[in-house]
Amino acid sequence: MIDCCIFDLDGVVVDTARYHYLAWAALARELGFEFTPVQGEATKGVSRMASLEIVLRAGGLEGRFSAAERERLAAEKNARYLRFVSQMTPAEVLPGVAAFLHDVRSRGVRTVLGSASKNAGTILDRCGLRPLFDAVVDGNEVSRAKPDPEVFLKGAAAVDAAPSVCVVFEDAAAGIEAASRAGMRSVGVGGGASLSAATMRLETFAGFTFEQLAMKIDRD
Ligand code: G6P
Ligand code: MG
C-alpha cells in the first residue's frame, strides 16, 4: 500500500542544482580558484554549510576561515543563488512532475516535500507548486542531513503516515539511503549511476502515473 509520496526538491521537482553550482563557482572565483562542475556534484543533497566546506576544500582553503567568516561566505553564496531563484517560473518544474502530483492527490494519497534546502518554500511559491503539497519539511526544520532519515520521518509524521506506506522520490544516493534508514521504499529519479539501492528507478516523470508506481512498487 502507498499512502504518502515524499519528494526531494532539487533534481526531482526542479533543476536548481545548476543554480547552486553557479553560485558556488562564483564564490570560488572570488576566492581565487575554479570550482568545476564535477566537483559541484558532491554538493548535491548536502546542506549549505557542509557544501561550503566542500568548496573550500576544493580550493585548498579548508580551515582558513573563522566560523563568522564562513557564515558570511555562505550568506554571499545564498544571496547569489536567490537571485537565480527570483527569476524562476512554473516552466522550470521538471517534465511530468505537476501532472504526477495531481494524479497522486486524486487517489487520496498525501504528498510531502522533504528537502535539505532552507529556500524550499520560496522555490515552491515561485513555481506555483505549494498547493500540491500537504506538508513541507525543509532545511529550516531539520538538523541532521541526509543520509540521516530525519527529514523523511518528519515529513511522514506531518501527514500522520507510517514509514511503511511512504515512497520517497530522490535523485541523490544519500537520499535513497535516508529513505531506507527511515524504513521507506524509494524511487531513484534520473540517470545517476549511484542510485542502485533504490526500490525502483525512474528516468523522468513525463507520462508516469500513480498506477504505474503502485504496479511496480506495491506488488507484494
Ligand atoms: C539541497 C541541494 C544542495 C543544497 C542544499 C541546501 O539539498 O541539493 O545542493 O546545498 O539543498 O540548500 P539551501 O537552499 O538551504 O542553501
Ligand atoms: Mg536532490
TrEMBL record:
<dbReference type="InterPro" id="IPR006439">
    <property type="entry name" value="HAD-SF_hydro_IA"/>
</dbReference>
<feature type="binding site">
    <location>
        <position position="51"/>
    </location>
    <ligand>
        <name>substrate</name>
    </ligand>
</feature>
<feature type="binding site">
    <location>
        <position position="8"/>
    </location>
    <ligand>
        <name>Mg(2+)</name>
    </ligand>
</feature>
<dbReference type="InterPro" id="IPR036412">
    <property type="entry name" value="HAD-like_sf"/>
</dbReference>
<feature type="binding site">
    <location>
        <position position="171"/>
    </location>
    <ligand>
        <name>Mg(2+)</name>
    </ligand>
</feature>
<feature type="active site" description="Nucleophile">
    <location>
        <position position="8"/>
    </location>
</feature>
<keyword id="KW-0460">Magnesium</keyword>
<feature type="binding site">
    <location>
        <begin position="115"/>
        <end position="119"/>
    </location>
    <ligand>
        <name>substrate</name>
    </ligand>
</feature>
<feature type="binding site">
    <location>
        <position position="24"/>
    </location>
    <ligand>
        <name>substrate</name>
    </ligand>
</feature>
<keyword id="KW-0479">Metal-binding</keyword>
<dbReference type="Pfam" id="PF00702">
    <property type="entry name" value="Hydrolase"/>
</dbReference>
<feature type="binding site">
    <location>
        <position position="10"/>
    </location>
    <ligand>
        <name>Mg(2+)</name>
    </ligand>
</feature>
<feature type="active site" description="Proton donor/acceptor">
    <location>
        <position position="10"/>
    </location>
</feature>
<dbReference type="GO" id="GO:0005975">
    <property type="term" value="P:carbohydrate metabolic process"/>
</dbReference>
<feature type="binding site">
    <location>
        <begin position="8"/>
        <end position="10"/>
    </location>
    <ligand>
        <name>substrate</name>
    </ligand>
</feature>
<dbReference type="GO" id="GO:0000287">
    <property type="term" value="F:magnesium ion binding"/>
</dbReference>
<feature type="site" description="Important for catalytic activity and assists the phosphoryl transfer reaction to Asp8 by balancing charge and orienting the reacting groups">
    <location>
        <position position="115"/>
    </location>
</feature>
<dbReference type="InterPro" id="IPR023214">
    <property type="entry name" value="HAD_sf"/>
</dbReference>
<feature type="site" description="Important for catalytic activity and assists the phosphoryl transfer reaction to Asp8 by balancing charge and orienting the reacting groups">
    <location>
        <position position="146"/>
    </location>
</feature>
<feature type="binding site">
    <location>
        <position position="146"/>
    </location>
    <ligand>
        <name>substrate</name>
    </ligand>
</feature>
<dbReference type="InterPro" id="IPR023198">
    <property type="entry name" value="PGP-like_dom2"/>
</dbReference>
<dbReference type="InterPro" id="IPR010976">
    <property type="entry name" value="B-phosphoglucomutase_hydrolase"/>
</dbReference>
<protein>
    <submittedName>
        <fullName>Beta-phosphoglucomutase</fullName>
        <ecNumber>5.4.2.6</ecNumber>
    </submittedName>
</protein>
<dbReference type="GO" id="GO:0050308">
    <property type="term" value="F:sugar-phosphatase activity"/>
</dbReference>
<feature type="binding site">
    <location>
        <position position="170"/>
    </location>
    <ligand>
        <name>Mg(2+)</name>
    </ligand>
</feature>
<comment type="similarity">
    <text>Belongs to the HAD-like hydrolase superfamily. CbbY/CbbZ/Gph/YieH family.</text>
</comment>
<keyword id="KW-0413">Isomerase</keyword>
<dbReference type="InterPro" id="IPR010972">
    <property type="entry name" value="Beta-PGM"/>
</dbReference>
<feature type="binding site">
    <location>
        <position position="77"/>
    </location>
    <ligand>
        <name>substrate</name>
    </ligand>
</feature>
<dbReference type="InterPro" id="IPR051806">
    <property type="entry name" value="HAD-like_SPP"/>
</dbReference>
<dbReference type="GO" id="GO:0008801">
    <property type="term" value="F:beta-phosphoglucomutase activity"/>
</dbReference>
